[in-house]
Amino acid sequence: MKRALPVLAAIATVVAVPGLHAEEIASVNTNFRFTGSDRVTVEAYDDPGVTGVTCYVSRARTGGVKGTLGIAEDPSEASIACRQVGPIKIDAPLKQKADIFSASMSFIFKTLHVVRVVDAKRNTLVYLTYSDRIATGSAKNSVTAVPMPAGTTIPVK
Question: Where does the signal peptide begin and end (predicted)?
Fold first, then answer.
């Protein structure tokens, strides 16, 4: 039973991620396989707490039989670019740091995160993407920032 607890915790983490869903914008094949090619995808995520900001994340996706079945482990690398895509509206005060999106990168143990950080001094939203592995972690990350338009102040909890 003690060995099952970390596995159950990992499953709970993957299932209980924030409710953002990726919209795949495009993908390119990188490694041909008869059973399904590896590819790099570009996905769009609208920030749930900030209307008018969208984050674009590119990441590698493993193909083949395992990729098709959803049991392949995707590489840890990801890149992020967040931009103002419309008028910015913040309905409620934001946490100084919030995990706004998570997605599984393997059957259980690896997760991609997008974290929003409020830089109140510079009135800027900073977005960080990184992947973690429950057992070892990962230092692979990417960062981008969206400065607020003049007259818009970020309310912080």
Answer: 1-22
Boundaries of every domain in the chain: 4-147
Confidence at residue 35, expressed as pLDDT on a 0 to 100 scale: 64
Helices (H), 31-96: 64-69
Check residue 50 and report its DSSP letter. S
Cα angle 9, 10, 13; round to 5: 85
Return d(Cα 60, Cα 51) in angstroms, integer. 27
Backbone angles phi, psi at 5, to 5 degrees: -60, -45
Average pLDDT, the chain: 77
Tokens read off for 127: 């977005």
Determine if the pTM surpasses 0.85: no
**Is the alpha carbon torsion for 41, 66, 77, 29 positive or negative?**
negative
Per-residue pLDDT tens digits for 88-107: 999 999 999 999 988 765 55
